[in-house]
Write a structure and sequence with these properties.
This protein has 124 residues and is mostly helical. 83% of the residues lie in helices and 0% in strands. The chain is built from five helices and no strands.
Length: 124
């Protein structure tokens, strides 16, 4: 694969993940499969790339949502504290598991998420 095509794909994938991340839908649900499937990168590497890009996307999204009045901080203390604790646990677990297991687990997660979204739409 040429370097120009590779750079183009990185920019395209970053753009796509940024749009979905900015909308609050989680850019990583797209970024990780795009990087693993189309660029053949290791699952653990893709998760690390996603975490770094997420920090930047989340910061800008928070600022914009705050300015538009869409951010309410009531009750977020418990979510943040539990999120930090279980993020550490998840990162330690991901470091111990082989990439193949992580790929399978992420695929199962995406399938379950897809099914739940379809059921939610059908109920309406």
């Amino acid at each position: 694969m040429s370097i120009y095509l590779l750079v183009f794909l990185y920019i395209l994938f970053g753009f796509t993940a940024g749009i979905f991340g900015g909308l609050g839908m989680g850019g990583g649900t797209l970024l990780i499969p795009l990087l693993t499937i189309f660029l053949g990168l290791d699952q653990k590497l893709c998760q690390g790339i996603n975490l770094v890009s997420f920090l930047v996307m989340a910061l800008f999204s928070l600022i914009i949502h705050y300015k538009n009045g869409y951010l309410k901080l009531d009750g977020t203390k418990f979510i943040v504290i539990s999120g930090i604790i279980f993020s550490i646990c998840g990162a330690l677990l991901a470091g111990c598991l082989p990439s193949k297991i992580l790929k399978i687990a992420f695929g199962v997660f995406l399938c379950i998420l897809s099914i739940l979204q379809v059921v939610k739409v059908l109920k309406k």
